[in-house]
Amino acid sequence: MMVLLTWEPTEAERDQIAREWPADLQSLRQGDLDPGELRTIIPQVEVMVGPVWTIPKDLLSRAPELRLIHVLGHGVDGLLTPETVDLLRGRGVLVARSNPAAIAIAEFVIMSLIALTRRMVTLHNRLTFHGDWSSELKAQRGAGSLGGELYESALGLIGYGSIAVEIHKRAAAFGMEVGALARRPARLEGSGLDFVVPWQDIDAFLKRCDYLVLSVPLTNQTTHLINADRIRAM
Questions:
Q1: Can you give the pLDDT at residue 43?
Q2: d(C-alpha 173, C-alpha 149), whole Å
Q3: Looking at residue 134, what is its pLDDT?
Q4: Angstrom distances, CA of residue 222 to CA of 111, 151, 158
Q5: Phi/psi of residue 157, each to 5°?
Q6: Within the chain, what is the greatest distance between any pair of CA atoms?
Q7: Which residues of the chain, if any, have pLDDT below 50?
Q8: Domains detected in the chain
């Protein structure tokens, strides 16, 4: 089997590939090939591995043996254009991904929720840039008008992949009610979610949420899924 590595692996990644991949698997690094050499070997490539922006989309039509594209990282919208989707489906090519950044993204989401809820940016600007240390500001903060709590608020997740799973864990630790919008609700049984709503009932789902996180690929089905009308409905 021939695998095309479309990114430049680090030395540690090269060692891991040599140690863990089957011995009969032939891997080539795209960066080691000039354009002519790449076009020559593309018809033999069965698997491509790399970040989405490194996949040679213009050469996919010349890869009749291609069976799998494994994307490193999150987001596949740069690959799944209408033309590419038709080509890959027609040939039965699978697209998979692995995302080592799920925990980092989940922590960023929780940080953002806290910052928004506690109005940290507003408070920081008034205290730091405007020197507003007035008793009025302190009174507002004490009265809770400068922020609330995540506790017992409802977080809605659209998409429940690896990123959403990590967000769920951390939001639950703050005492939030966590739910998900799902195309196949039965698949989320046993997930520990507080509520699961079918995809077609998105408007009812939004009305139940205080906060919303989208962790779905950007596709024709998800583009403009959330618009001004739906935000107003929350």
A1: 96
A2: 13
A3: 65
A4: 25, 29, 10
A5: -110, 120
A6: 73
A7: none
A8: 2-98 (3.40.50.720), 103-117+149-233 (3.40.50.720)
Residues 6+ apart with CB under 8 A from 91: 64, 66
- Size of the chain in residues: 234
State residue 217's pLDDT score: 82
Residue 40 contacts residue 17 (beta carbons within 8 Å): no
- Please give the backbone phi and psi of residue 166, each rounded to the nearest 5 degrees, phi first: -70, -35
Do the bridges between strand 154-158 and strand 94-98 make them parallel or antiparallel, or are there none, so unpaired?
unpaired
pLDDT of residue 125: 77
Q: d(Cα 17, Cα 184) in Å, to the nearest integer?
A: 35
Give CA–CA dist 117/148, Å, rounded: 6
Confidence (pTM): 0.78
Spatial separation of the C-alpha atoms in residues 117 and 150, rounded to whole Å: 7
pLDDT of residue 66: 97
Residue 138: phi, psi to the nearest 5?
-65, -40
